[in-house]
């Protein structure tokens, strides 16, 4: 009899009901937060690697006096390491040597593309360069990249995310860097 009375009293008690409901629902609320965090961290890492790849390739070319086909082939292969663990096959990149003629005119000396991105036309003008880089008689290296990425869980970002980056480096040894 005492057992049945205790069970009735326990069933009628309302203290701690909210805490019990929260304990049941809280794990369900944490799962979307966890899934979204995984997607966000992966996308931020891929974006940083794509940005680093463009900057690294521009920096390597800016330290050279002449760029050969073999050097370019090596740089394209280096994308595998720069983009690891992401797929470098989704990266389109272009390296362009630009000669600054005056404060408003910059012309393409040479340009090479990779991964589906074509090079710029030699002699064409390039716009959108920061005015601080427009020093007449100098040259710059511009690396442009586009990286298409899919989040691993596709919880927050269900579709393709396109990341574009442009990196500029001033030629260090010669103006402009020749294409051999």
Write up this protein.
The structure is a single chain. The protein is α+β, with helices and mostly antiparallel strands. It has three helices and six strands, in the order ααβαβββββ. The chain has helices at residues 2-12, 17-62, 69-83; strands at residues 66-67, 91-102, 105-114, 139-150, 160-170, 178-179. It has a four-stranded antiparallel sheet, with helices on one face. Strands 1-6 form a two-stranded parallel ribbon. The longest helix has 46 residues, at 17-62. The chain is rod-shaped. The N and C termini lie far apart (99 Å).
Strand content: 25-35%
Cα distance, first to last residue?
A: 99 Å
Reading the helices and strands in chain order gives HHEHEEEEE
* Total DSSP E strands: 6
Largest β-sheet summary:
4 strands, antiparallel
Q: Which term fits the overall shape? A: rod-shaped
- Low-confidence stretches are none
What fraction, in percent, of the residue positions are helical?
A: 40-55%
Order of strands, main sheet, comes to: 3-2-4-5
């Amino acid at each position: 009899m005492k057992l049945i009375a205790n069970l009735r009293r326990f069933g009628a008690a309302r203290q701690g009901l909210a805490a019990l409901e929260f304990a049941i629902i809280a794990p369900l609320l944490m799962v979307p937060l966890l899934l979204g965090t995984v997607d966000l961290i992966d996308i931020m890492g891929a974006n940083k690697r794509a940005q680093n790849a463009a900057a690294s390739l521009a920096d390597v070319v800016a330290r050279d006096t002449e760029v050969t086909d073999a050097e370019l082939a090596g740089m394209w292969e280096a994308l595998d390491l720069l983009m690891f663990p992401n797929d470098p096959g989704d990266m389109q990149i272009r390296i362009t040597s630009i000669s600054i003629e005056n404060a408003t005119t910059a012309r393409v000396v040479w340009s090479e593309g990779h991964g589906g991105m074509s090079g710029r036309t030699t002699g064409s003008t390039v716009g959108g360069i920061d005015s601080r880089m427009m020093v007449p008689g100098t040259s710059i290296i511009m690396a442009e990249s586009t990286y298409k990425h899919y989040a691993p869980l596709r919880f927050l970002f269900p579709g393709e995310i396109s990341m574009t980056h442009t990196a500029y480096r001033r030629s260090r040894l010669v103006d402009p860097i020749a294409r051999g």
